[in-house]
Amino acid sequence: MRRSWPTRRSLVCIRTGWSARHREAERLLKDGSPGPWTPYHGKGAEEDVHPDYKLPRMHFPGVSAEVAEWLVQCRDMAGLGIDTLSPDAGASEGFKTHHAVLGADRYIVENLNLEGLPARGATVTVAPTALRGAPE
């Protein structure tokens, strides 16, 4: 299999295979509790929340901040896409990958279904939602 690097100013998409779990929210939680939108229900739930934003502790793969920085600096990546809830691994703290990408004025696209895309050469359109007062 011939490997090739993405061209400059590309959207780099990471296919982890977790898009198959998008409809199974309880599998994304580390402890198997009843779903990410009810993190504080039940005995002991407070101990298993993300320390940064009181989010439930999630369990899914992500991209390290070092890899994100390399993609920005060495490959001039335009944006980072991933088929999980976040480019930061579910158990990570500090949202370092978010900071590495967004801090370099690049964009992030999450919760993608990448199963039907080729490994290279797809054309995508990424458009922001128009929100009053949001940065451009």
Automatic annotation (TrEMBL):
<dbReference type="GO" id="GO:0019441">
    <property type="term" value="P:L-tryptophan catabolic process to kynurenine"/>
</dbReference>
<dbReference type="InterPro" id="IPR037175">
    <property type="entry name" value="KFase_sf"/>
</dbReference>
<dbReference type="InterPro" id="IPR007325">
    <property type="entry name" value="KFase/CYL"/>
</dbReference>
<comment type="similarity">
    <text>Belongs to the Cyclase 1 superfamily.</text>
</comment>
<dbReference type="Pfam" id="PF04199">
    <property type="entry name" value="Cyclase"/>
</dbReference>
<dbReference type="GO" id="GO:0004061">
    <property type="term" value="F:arylformamidase activity"/>
</dbReference>
<protein>
    <submittedName>
        <fullName>PPIP5K1 protein</fullName>
    </submittedName>
</protein>
